[in-house]
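Lecture 7 notes: from sequence to structure.
We start with the chain below.
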Amino acid sequence: MKKLIGIAALSFLSIALTAQTQHLKFTNDGAFASVSGSDSLSNFSVQVSRGSAQGSTTTNLVLVSVAFSADMTSATILEVVGPIPNSSFTGDNTKNLTLNLDPSTLDPSVTVIQDCSIDFTQVDPIFVCGALPPGTVSLSFHENDLQRDQVLADERFSTFGPITIHSHQRSDSGSATVQGTIFGTSISSANASVGVNHMSTIDYIRN
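Predicted structure tokens for the same chain:
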């Protein structure tokens, strides 16, 4: 199921990029926080990181949420992928990091912000994309030091249909707890991560 959800997510992402942009590239160099979760019918992933672009500090967000109907005849995906205001991600160090974002304030020509659905009952599946649902993303991450990881060099290429994802990560990270909401849905997990990226890069490319 998780593989199916992941493929569906990337398929939807290709549609969003078709409508808005052909190439998104992030350079993440600073504090980051991430959390993901899944059940039998849904999956979500959030990663927010400080970065850099042309000598200026940036903040980048990759938020993807996928949910299938109980009968598996339809699915919806919510996406916020791209730069967000620096003020949305706060914290002096990785002990406590907070993401507070109102996606309705983002520029859709710069950041992918869409809520899409697909109907699998049709011979040719029907995609419908529109504005995000009302609400905000509010998450508080607290490092607990139960686990520490160091990634020295992790480079990956993944291709799904017309989308190629190229990531290169170097980071120091630790385990964390997170609490908050994503568009009104409560999030509480002890499986989050916080840390520091060291000139890590992510490319989303539509071929």
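Points to note: Helices lie at 2-20. The two ends are 27 Å apart (CA to CA).
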